[in-house]
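Sanity check

After download, print the first record. It should look like this:
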Amino acid sequence: MSSPDQLGQVKRKMGRRRKRVAIGDGVPNPRKEEKTPAPPRKEKKKKTDIGKMFINISIGLCIFSLIWFFYALYMRSSLARRVVTLHPSQRVLDANSSSPAVSPERYWGTYRPQVYFGMKTRSPRSVVTGLMWMRQFAEMDGNLRHTCEQGDHLLGYGWLMHDGVSFGVQEVHDRDFTLTTEFVKRMGGDHGGDWTWRITAKQHEAEMKVKVQICLCF
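Expected structure tokens:
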């Protein structure tokens, strides 16, 4: 026989079980609703910063300029070494080949390039001679003529006769007059002989508009 106390404990246990079953069979506990992830948004294209672009371009140009500058210095120095440095092969001409004793007939000559008229010797330390002229008191075109320049606007100039040794005749056509330059050499002595110039001016019109000054320089 069970005591009333034991029956009471059994009823209590049964009541607890029923409550648990009722709770378990009921509506499940509401869970937190999970938010669905939003679709990824397209990133807007960043606007180009004009200031940064200008700075980058400036830096690039500076670097390019420095590279070009150092390259030009290198090429200049290398070309200078090539010009100054003598070739190790045997010389074609002797060291004294330009002296008057070796070739006296060719010692003096018109060995001055880029001038209208001039003479010198074959020696590297020669006396240099030349011809100059200019228009005096001219409002326009008062340049001194000596070196061959396109800005002189001459009508023409050039040698008519020249044997390369003893004589030559040249004409220089300016706007208002023509200059005729002549030279002749005579052999003799120890310094390549003697030579003589003659400069003749002939005006194109009866009256010259401006005065012309002719100089022989040494």
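If your output differs, re-run the checksum step. Summary of this record's structure: Confidence is low (pLDDT under 50) at residues 21-27.
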